[in-house]
């Protein structure tokens, strides 16, 4: 048991992902959001009481309910497939055949190892093969997959895969540069470091095309 706990701590402390998919149970949506909020509220109450907090204080009285609603409705809302954004696509009637880049998309996610924030920017690009997608939909896809307990590598892959399906092309790329508060505020407590992940599909695997994309987003990291 101790060895297993040490192994689990090592995975979490080193931010290692063991699955390309979010580990969600099959029965995850058998109960309603309201039921989840009530259950989480009681759990948060228990945590705060165990820590010695006085929940009769006006400042803390509503905290369990606020946290529960935030978990279900906001920061983990991307777990619910019903909230998946519809990727509206259109025919590329104006025959634009160059790279389209949407950069500096704000990423707010949560590290699944410590439940602390991941904050950064995503840069997404694709080359149309006859289909284009609304610009805001790219932001919404990033937001949807970010609003889960995540690891950054998986998030990067999910964004690319979703856009590849929507656009019907492999020619999609994503780079995310983000700070992990589980690194910045605890453990090593390195407030300056950030993590860069990338996923390149289709034509973006070509060195020239990839470099053009990285030049657009002014990222000096070499891949």
- Per CATH, which architecture of the largest domain? 2-Layer Sandwich
Number of strands: 7
Binned, the helix content reads 25-40%
Question: How would you characterize the largest beta sheet?
Answer: 5 strands, mixed
Q: Give the uncertain stretches in residue-range form.
A: none
Order of helices and strands: HHHEEEEHEHEHEH
Briefly note the CATH topology name of the largest domain: GTP Cyclohydrolase I, domain 2
Strand content: 15-25%
Pathway: Cofactor biosynthesis; 7,8-dihydroneopterin triphosphate biosynthesis; 7,8-dihydroneopterin triphosphate from GTP: step 1/1
Subunit structure: Homopolymer.
Enzyme class: hydrolase
GO cellular component, one term: cytoplasm
What key attributes describe this structure?
223 residues; alpha+beta; GTP Cyclohydrolase I, Chain A, domain 1; five-stranded mixed beta sheet; two-stranded antiparallel sheet; 38% helix; globular; GTP cyclohydrolase I activity
Could you explain the architecture of this structure?
Pfam families: GTP_cyclohydroI. Its EC number is 3.5.4.16. Helix content is 38%, strand content 21%. With 223 residues, the protein is an alpha+beta fold.
């Amino acid at each position: 048991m101790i060895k297993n706990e040490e192994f689990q701590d090592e995975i979490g402390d080193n931010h290692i992902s063991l699955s390309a998919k979010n580990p969600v149970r099959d029965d995850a949506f058998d109960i309603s959001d309201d039921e989840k909020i009530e259950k989480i509220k009681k759990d948060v109450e228990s945590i705060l009481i165990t820590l010695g907090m006085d929940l009769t204080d006006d400042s803390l009285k509503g905290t369990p309910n606020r946290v529960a609603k935030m978990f279900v409705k906001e920061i983990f809302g991307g777990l619910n497939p019903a909230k998946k954004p519809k990727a509206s696509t259109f025919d590329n009637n104006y025959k634009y055949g160059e790279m389209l880049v949407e950069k500096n998309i704000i990423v707010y996610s949560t590290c699944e190892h410590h439940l602390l924030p991941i904050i950064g920017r995503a840069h997404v690009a694709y080359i149309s093969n006859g289909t284009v997608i609304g610009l805001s939909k790219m932001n919404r896809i990033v937001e949807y997959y970010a609003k889960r307990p995540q690891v950054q590598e998986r998030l990067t892959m999910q964004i690319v895969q979703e856009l590849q399906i929507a656009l019907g092309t492999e020619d999609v790329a994503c780079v995310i540069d983000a700070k992990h508060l589980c690194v910045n505020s605890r453990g090593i407590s390195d407030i300056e470091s950030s993590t860069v992940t990338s996923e390149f599909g289709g034509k973006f695997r070509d060195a020239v095309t990839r470099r053009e994309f990285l030049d657009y987003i002014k990222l000096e990291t070499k891949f």
